[in-house]
Amino acid sequence: MSGRVVIERPVSADMAGSRLDVVVGAIPEVGSRSRAEVLVAEGLVLVDGIARPRSYRVREGQVVRVEVPDSAHDSGDDLTAEDIPVPIVYEDVWLLVVDKPAGLVVHPAPGHAGGTLVNALLNHGLAGGEEGFRPGIVHRLDKDTSGLMVVAKNDRAHQSLTAQFADHGRTGPMRRGYMAFVWGVPGRQRGTPDNRFGPEDL
What we know:
With 202 residues, the chain is of the alpha+beta class. The protein is built from 4 helices and 6 strands, in the order E-H-H-E-E-E-E-H-E-H. It has helices at 20-25, 33-41, 117-123, 155-167, and strands spanning 4-10, 45-47, 63-69, 88-91, 95-100, 147-152.
């Protein structure tokens, strides 16, 4: 069973106001912003004991706690291709678009060493990317969320798509959309969801 390195760091004055993924990515044991995004998405990053989204702006003096899985999860050497059926709705020489079903984890993580979308992509012939354990992955969806995902097929596409997703459509043509079915009328007409909500919140 792989272990984890737990790191706790107070936010310094020069990092105050920075995004959480930027702060975590600057930690040597993490090493990159893209890996920081993975750790945040997996719930392995806490700010003053609370899970925050990657876009959260930290404040001076807050304590950032990060659980970093050991190096066994950083290498693609132990990944194997698996015949996992994932519908491909589009493909060209640069990218492919897959229809990720609910219940499928996107990339290997503690507790999910196999049976992921990455294992399916390896079976499709993809490899590489910025980090070996996430070939072609440029964005992610939660395990229980279904939807279309764009996957890069080469380094040039990977760099371009990563930059476009990070920009959130502010300056480029890329747009992301989400669909939800709601029964009843939410109690609040405006707000920013930062956690799961259910019927009791309506």
